[in-house]
Amino acid sequence: MMGNGFGFGWWFLLIPLFWIIVIAALFAIFGRRWRRSMGEGWHPGWQGQTDARSAEKTLAERFAQGDIDEVEYRARLEVLRANRPDTPAPPA
Q1: Alpha-carbon radius of gyration of the chain
Q2: Which of 56, 41, 50, 58 is nearest to 85 (CA)?
Q3: pLDDT in tens, 17-51
Q4: Which of 60, 64, 54 is nearest to 76 (CA)?
Q5: What's the distance, Cα to Cα, between the start and end of the chain in Å?
Q6: CB 88 within 8 Å of CB 81
Q7: Residue 4 and residue 20: Cα distance in Å, rounded?
């Protein structure tokens, strides 16, 4: 006979508690990575593309607001696109 008649006693609760902790830990680790990957620029290879698009967007906004003229806009846009890390430089 097993002491007070409850069989396994409180040891039986440790098995589901263990799995709850394991699942919560996995969710915390992989959920955070998944949420970061959904945001802009999480992956190191995407950071340069995000920065270049952001710079082009800012330049377009300044042109639309009249802060810069078309000649300056096109010149700066050409410089941004020439220095973009994901595109090869144009042949000389």
Answers
A1: 28
A2: 50
A3: 999 999 999 998 888 777 777 665 445 554 555 67
A4: 60
A5: 91
A6: no
A7: 28
